[in-house]
Each structure stands twice: as structure tokens, then as C-alpha cells.
Amino acid sequence: MQDLLYFSQQLINGLTIGSTYALIAIGYTMVYGIIGMINFAHGEIYMIGAYTALIAITGLATLGIAWLPLVLIVALICAMIVSSSMGWAVERVAYRPVRGRHRLIPLISAIGMSIFLQNYVHLAQGSRNVGFPALIDGSFRFGTGEGFQLSISYMQITIFITTLVCMTILSLFISRSRIGRACRAVSQDLGMANLLGIDTNRIISATFVIGAALAAVAGLLLGMYYGSVDPLFGFIAGLKAFTAAVLGGIGSIPGAMLGGLILGVAESMTSGYLSGEYKDVVSFSLLILILLFKPTGLLGKPEVEKI
Amino acid sequence: MKMSVKKLATAVGASVALMAAGQAAAEIRIGIAGPMTGPVAQYGDMQFSGARMAIERINAAGGVMGEQLVGVEVDDVCDPKQAVTVANRLVNQGVQYVVGHLCSSSTQPASDIYEDEGILMITPASTSPEITQRGYELVFRTIGLDSMQGPVAGEYIVSQNPNKVAVIHDKQQYGEGIATAVRDTLRNAGVEVAMFEGITAGDKDFSSLVTKIKQANVDFVYYGGYHPELGLILRQARQADVNAKFMGPEGVGNKDINTIAGEAAEGLLVTLPPSFDEKEENQDLVAAFADKGEDPSGPFVLTSYTAVQLVADGIEQAGTKDPFEVAKALRSGTFETPIGTVQYNQAGDMESFEFVVYEWHSDGSKTPVN
């Protein structure tokens, strides 16, 4: 019983962190699916989302507004607007001018953008940690007496449910809406979609905007969960999310979700049953193994040779 | 032509050295090397203030073996290249003793020059263990090493009679070094170390680690590393109802941990160097600083004072001004100083440098634990 509780606790820890990887991974996977480039500045967009949400929450608090649902919705909307405009601007400034050149050029441009945004926030907000108020506090507890108690915090539940809801909405949007259909067309063949009258520039911008908006959701949730933000907030998270996207099959949206969850659970099980030192060793070995047997990732489609 | 210029330079150099040697007969020159300008100049001010005060007070009390001390102050800007330049300048001025440098990165290259030239050096501020690990004969310090806090923390934990202890670190030189020292101290005292584990610096999610700590049922957790990670661990541990006591080194003892951990920082234990200016036996000295309008509370003021005093005491005990003899006297003697009783080991480190256990509070203040 004790062991089962411990296992469940580690599983919940893994699923929580995995769903946040998945939310961030969407941004990587959508951009890759459509224009075949890796947007390394995406982790920074997520960090900016967290900062914006914090600024909004602090602003509302000075105005004396403390009704939780209102605070959360306003913070979320502010974060999504700022992050989305940032995602759009990054694409216009750093990626569109170099689109269609050699593969390396957009890649270097993306790394440069990431460094620029990180240092910009360093300058504008200072390099120290800033406290983030814990708006959703408390937890469910299972198991009684002296033994190990399983605890699931409301925040963990919120993160998991929000991720599921966002993923469902996004999948519906991609499969049912007009823009979604255009997105799929562009990802299949950019040149042909253009010939058929789809404004590909607009679709590519939309991809960046959607990815950035989801990153902003993750920024708000994780800012509250961890209780503080700093300018390096997005670096490791971005790296892990990128790994999750590759694991699940880059370009595939359900793949990003699956990859995130697998990575999160693998990490928490390794540090739970082996040692925290082997956490990254195990998750990256897993990545290599999967790519050896399935080079396109778990749910990735094999690249069709275009003639 | 080139040759003659070189010869001339050598001749001038030699005569300057001779002149300096002539002066040294009447007085004892001590080089004081630290940053007067640059980004860490405020620490340099502490160093110069302490050293000047020591020189004044020793001279007022009759000097050393009847001779007066004279400070030769140089600015190394805390820059390793500049440190080498000023070290050479001190060599040319016939200085036989140096109090400095401040930054470990400056002390290291400068000490190579002093050791080669037979100059005794005491650094009042450099804590990098490497400085005294090179088998040098003339290098000393009046400050603790990064690695000295571990045993202090370990002994404190032992004194609390915990059942099981977890030792966590961030896999970096500073954190893992201290954590290893804590673990060894605990094991030698027969305390069970249930976990010894590294985390990744920069990580945000420690829920798996916290769950493991909870499962291991430890009542004490030691963390070797800096505040960003410990702050998050504290916070996540509090959320998961972990009731263990947490402890960390100097690197976690600053106000940023309150920003990150919030309420969870209350009751955290931290090892820090004591406030020497609050010691009762130093009140006379503190008053002397106050008379000059200077503040002795900075971490390097009284360590610099002590460094100058040790040079003077060393010369007295050796009965000669030969730096090698003075170094031997420092290694064999016991000295009463404002920072406590100083005894040196073979490497040139103090046998013990006091670290005090403080309890941290959620408003960023701290109180000593007895």
C-alpha cells in the first residue's frame, strides 16, 4: 500500500511536469510542422508570458481587485496578448527575411533571437528572482496515520486539466476550422498551398501566434506553481519541451502531448527510484532509443519524398 | 644599442632595489594589494581600512622590534593581469610582506610571483581552496575556505540527534564539496545518511525529489548549493507537507531566498562567518574605527587587520625579518587576534575558521542558534 502510494505520487508529479512540457512543445512542433525550422526563441516567449502575467496580477492587486477568477482571466489574457504579439514580431523580424535560405541561417537567427530576448528581460526586469503569488493554494490528501501520504495540490490538478482542455481545443481548431485546414495544407506543401490561393504568410504568422499563446498559458500556470520567475525561466523548460516534441514526433500535435507526458513520467520515475543524477541520462537515452527505432518520433509521419 | 639599454635598465633596477633595501633597515614595508577602483572597490575599501588601522595601532605601540611599519598600497582592480603587474611593482620596491589580494582570481597569479621572490603573503579575503593547495611555503590566509563550512554544519546536525538525514547538492564544485564534507562528518559520527543525491542547477521542478525525501522519512535535510534551487525545494517541500529541518551554506543565506520560498524559508538553518565586530573583546578596536569615521562591520575589515597583526607577531616570534623564518614562526605559533585564535596548518590555512549557525526568518532577518 505504501509503495503504491509512493508510485502514484511520483506518477502524478511526472504527469504534471509532463503536461507543462507538452504545452510548451506545441509551439516547437507547430512551427516545425509548417516551415521546417526550430524556433529556439520559444522558451523565451514562455518566460515573457510568465512575466506579463505577474505584472498583470501585481497591477490588479494595487487596484484592489482580488476576486480570483477575474484575476486569473485578466492575467491570462494579458499574457496571451503580449506573448502572441511577441511571437508574431519575432517571426516578422527574425525569420521571415531569411525564410527559404539555407537551413542553417534561420537556425542561427533563432538562437540569436533567444539570446536577445533573454538579455532584454535581464535588463528590463533585473536578473534576480521575482516572487509570484500562489493564487491557488492547498491540496487533496490520501492515506492516513504515520505512513506516506499522497498529496495532489490543486495547482497540479489545474495544470493537468488546463493542458488537456488546451490540447482538445487546439486539435478541434486544426481539424475543423478554416485556418486549421489552411495550416494543414501549408504543412503538406507550402508552394502548392500558395498557388491555390492560401495566404501562406498569414498562416505562418498564425502558427507563431497560436504557439506563443499556449506558451503564455504555461507561463502563467508554472509561474504560480513554482512561485517565482527569473530571466532564465524559459531556458531549461524550452530545452525539455523541444526534446518532448522530438520524442513524440516533431510536427505532430498529439505527438507533442504524448512526448511531454512520457518525458515527464520518465524523469520523475528515474529520480524517484534511481537517483536524481540519472534523470537526464535516462530521459535522453530514451530519446536516442526511440529515434533509433522510429526516426520520426512516436507519432511522426515519415517524410514523403516530394517529386 | 639594445644591449646597453638593457644593461642600463638592470643597473637602474638594481640601484632602486638597493635603495629600497637601505630604507628597509629603518622600517618594515608591508604591501597592501587590493582593488581601489573597479567593480568590487567597496570590498577593497574594507581591506585598506583594516590594514591601515592595524599599522597605526602597532606603530603607536612601539612598532615591531623597534621598527615602524609602513604600508605600500597598490591597486589591482581585482583583475588577474593587473595583479601580476602590481605584484612585480611590490617586488621592485623591496617589500617583503604582502597583505592581499582580495579576489581569488587575483591572489592566485600574484602568489606565484611572491613565492618565487621570497615574499610572505597573507590574503584576508580569498576563499578558493586551490590557493593553498600548491605546496607553497609563503602563502597564508586569514579567512575560511569554501570547504570549511561542511564540517561545521555536519557537527551541528549531529548535535541535534536526527534519526535520518538527507544530503542534497547541485553537482557543482562549491555545493558538492560542502555536501560531501557534511556527509562524511555525519557518517563518522554514526548518523544515518539516508540519501545523498545531486540535482541539476537551473531546474524548477523538484517534486520527485521532495516525494523521495518524504518517503525516506528523514528529519533533517542538508543542501549544498545556492539559493535559487533551495528556495524552490523549500517551497515544494512545504506544499507536500515535509516536516524535516533544512540547512544550507553561506550561498543560500541572502534575501533572495525569501522571494522564492516565501513563508517556507522560516526556520531554515544557514552557516555564515560570525560578525567579528560584535565580539566583546573587539569593542575597543570597534571604537577606534568609529573615531576615524570608518565601519568595521564589513567581512574583510578585521581579517585584514589580523593579517597585518600576524605579520608583526610573526616577525617578533621569529626574531628576524627573513620571510621564510617568519613563515615558520606562523606555522608553529598560536596567535590571539580580533578574529579569534589563529593556528596554521602546513598548507597555510587556519586550523579552524569559525562559522556560526544562524536561523533564517521569512522576513529576511536571521538570529544566531546556540
From TrEMBL, chain B:
SUPFAM superfamilies: Periplasmic binding protein-like I
Residue ranges occupied by any Leucine-binding protein domain in the UniProt entry: 27-362
Keyword hit for Cell cycle: no
Pfam families registered for this protein in UniProt: Peripla_BP_6
UniProt KW keywords: Amino-acid transport, Signal, Transport
Record's signal peptide: 1-26
Record-level GO BP terms: amino acid transport
Family: Belongs to the leucine-binding protein family.
UniProt protein name: Branched chain amino acid ABC transporter substrate-binding protein
Species name: Marinobacter nauticus
